[in-house]
Write a structure and sequence with these properties.
67% helix; single chain; 466 residues; mainly alpha
Length: 466
């Protein structure tokens, strides 16, 4: 059930009306929570009903392990935590990485001369398994560390895991961000800001991401058939596409949550305005980067062990692998890890040194854009072909591909708005007498643009595959 589909529109309208009625008359939060968890399971079942058993198992399992961790016996607490993490990661490994691991082993055996038959494993990746795993681990670790008391209400706990707006692609939520809200009797429903975020997210998805997706799709599929400038343009187009696609999903998820009375955490802060790679990760997919820091980087020892660079690199390497079972994702994570290590080393070597903002922005953005090539390519071989094509002078022939004009104008407009928003951020906003009407006109413009640009095929969000 795609956010931009008519099916979701009617589904959400029904859920909103039911939730509004329950918020108006309820004396306990459980009727609203029950309605929302039932709606969430209907939403999840729309993808593949059989996988409801998976989310029910994960919910009940982690509910029980969270309570079992609360023990006076230190060894028992450690054993339960280890068991919980092993089971959650085991499920993720089976569905997401088992086929990749088997293929990698067989390929390695072939390299050293052992003949083997090809094995085809048709394991379907369940929607949201990666995000659910992260939240399950963070819940158990937080309870173990004493940061959060185990939840006693199974209904609230199920809704923490299954709340449908953020179920598929985040934001990744922590227990303290959601569970306290589910205990309130009357949650305020933020209608205006929710509608604005939904329209903004739909505009990013339908009028930008989907509109230019055809060009990078074609070039990345067969880079040998395109000129060097087309490869450059396709790379920049994907840079814009993935931001608008993923931040668009997040805007819609947060907006839907607000309209239902539940606040979800922010996930993006104009990431393409970053002046260094560390700042980029403070602004891009914030809930993932903070999760990696708090549960993986610190778990590896963080700054305490004297192996800061190793821990940082491994964190980003594993963060890349989390995105998908493919070597190109490993390279993507390794590239970000290497640049982060280099940035931290240089910051210690030359404290206080800073490049002029335009130079710092250009270098940072260049790293991000090059890394996106490995993220988008189907294989590492294709990614290297894309990069090699840029450095072949003979391929700079003629003008851009005839289909590229609209893509180029869209990219220019995006960067003008994205960087302009950062430049205007420091200025005080004047109070307009008719600000409400201006905002209404802006929302109407977004709505009309979406109606003209929306397609009947409901192109999936990119992060649905993770």
């Amino acid at each position: 059930m795609q956010f931009q589909s008519a099916q979701f529109l009617f589904f959400f309208a029904f859920v909103f009306v039911v939730t509004a009625i329950l918020n108006r008359f309820q004396k306990s939060p459980w009727p609203r929570n029950l309605a929302l968890i039932l709606a969430s399971y209907v939403f999840y079942a729309a993808w593949k009903p059989a996988y409801l058993l998976l989310i029910l198992f994960v919910t009940l399992f982690n509910f029980l392990t969270g309570k079992a961790i609360l023990s006076d016996n230190a060894r028992q607490r450690q054993a339960v935590l280890a068991f919980a993490i092993t089971v959650n990661l085991g499920l993720l490994f089976y569905f997401k990485y088992f086929a990749f691991a088997v293929h990698s082993v067989l390929t390695a055996l072939g390299w050293i001369g052992f003949a083997h038959d090809d094995i085809v494993l048709n394991i379907v990746l369940p929607i949201a398994i990666s995000f659910i795993t992260f939240e399950a681990i963070s819940y158990n670790v937080d309870v173990y560390r004493g940061n959060f008391a185990p939840e006693n209400n199974l209904l609230s706990f199920a809704l923490y895991f299954g709340f449908f707006p953020r179920l598929v692609s985040g934001p990744i939520v922590r227990p303290y961000q959601i569970l306290p809200q589910l205990k309130r009797v009357h949650n305020r429903m933020h209608l205006r800001s929710g509608i604005f975020l939904i329209l903004q997210g739909l505009f990013k998805k339908v009028c930008v991401s989907d509109l230019i997706s055809y060009f990078p799709n074609a070039v990345f599929k067969n880079p040998d058939a395109y000129s060097a400038q087309d490869i450059l343009l396709a790379t920049m187009a994907f840079t814009v596409q993935i931001y608008c696609d993923f931040s668009g999903y997040t805007d819609i998820a947060i907006g839907v949550g607000r309209m239902l009375g539940i606040q979800l955490p922010q996930n993006f802060k104009l990431p393409y305005t970053a002046l260094n790679i560390r700042e980029f990760w403070q602004k891009w997919h914030i809930t993932l980067s903070t999760w990696l820091r708090d549960y993986l980087y610190i778990g590896l020892g963080g700054n305490r062990t004297g192996h800061v660079y190793r821990n940082l690199f491994l964190t980003m390497l594993l963060g890349g692998l989390w995105h998908g079972a493919s070597w190109n994702f490993v390279i993507w994570g390794a590239l970000h890890g290497a640049v982060l290590v280099g940035y931290h080393w240089f910051s210690r070597w030359r404290p206080g040194f800073s490049l002029p903002a335009p130079v710092a922005w250009t270098l940072t953005h260049l790293v991000v854009v090059v890394a996106w090539v490995f993220f988008r390519a189907e294989t590492a071989t294709t990614a290297f072909k894309m990069i090699a094509g840029v450095f072949q002078p003979g391929r700079y022939t003629g003008l851009f591909n005839s289909d590229a004009g609209m893509v180029l104008y869209t990219i220019i407009a995006f960067y003008a708005i994205h960087l302009g928003a950062a430049l205007l951020k420091g200025f005080r906003r004047p109070a307009y007498k008719h600000g409400r009407y201006l905002l209404g006109a802006y929302q109407a413009l977004l709505f009309i643009s979406i109606l003209f640009a929306i397609k009947p095929d409901d192109t999936p969000f990119i992060y649905f595959q993770f």
